[in-house]
Hints:
With about 290 residues, the protein is an alpha+beta fold. It has six helices and 18 strands. It has helices spanning about 30-40, 80-90, 130-135, 165-170, 175-180, 220-230; strands spanning about 5-10, 20-25, 45-50, 60-65, 70, 95-100, 105-110, 115-120, 125, 150-155, 160-165, 190-195, 200-205, 210-215, 240-245, 255-265, 270-280, 285. It is globular. The mean pLDDT is about 95.
Amino acid sequence: MSDVEIVSMFADGQPGSGGLLGVVPDASHLTPDQMQALARETGTLETVFVLPPTDPSADYRVRVFTPEAESPFGGHPSLGTAVTLARLGVIAPGPVVQQCGARLLPLTVDARHGTISARDPLRTSAVDPAPLLAGAGLPRSALAVDSAGEAGRAGFGPHFHFLPVRPEALGEASPHPDVLLGAGFKDVFLLHWDADRLRADARMFAPGYGIPEDPACSSAALALGLWLLHNGLLPAQPATHRFQVRQGVGTARRSLLTCTLTTYDGGDPTATVSGEVVPEPDAALSR
């Protein structure tokens, strides 16, 4: 039997908020085929299977499955997994290291909250907005104007693709996965930046990762700080810059991600993203 915890990552304090995640705290007895079958049953965009680490510097190892396939990236569901393990007493609160494949990810967690840290950014660059607009079902007039930034790619691994749009376009967007994938893009992160509130209202379509629409993507939130810096929307002087992301705006599940980007004199930026993880009422499964 496999117990599955269903949790909401980056909940914003309202019922039904956050991105749903399935976590199997002990998957040591499951085969990959059994993991894939269970991921189809949970009703979540991703299910994480926790295993003993193979790297001595890690506290635990994960394999991540969407309903369709295994994902090589463990960053997206890492906060939900670590907070769940701390709540269940599998790991101690405080600094932990997650292993996914050969990648190690440092986090700091307690039984309800967590923070992910990232360093060593990839190169940030501009991209043509046309295929991103088409992939989101939006016309050229949906683009944000003036000093709202330009479409671009940024990330700590992998790259994510950012498209600044007018606020009303967030509710008008719809995913066109074949168009997006046909143009060579795995994702599009639509955002409207509020410079006064230091907040991005956002939606994300990620068909390249098996996720039609992602209500809470920590990896993209980490990358967003790099994009904001590149476009002059965060100051370049050495400091820690704080901002928030409200993801899933205009959808049934909205999430809140609290972010920092720290810039240095002569060094690469580092980033964090923090949020709340809560169990979904009456949603735990046993299989």
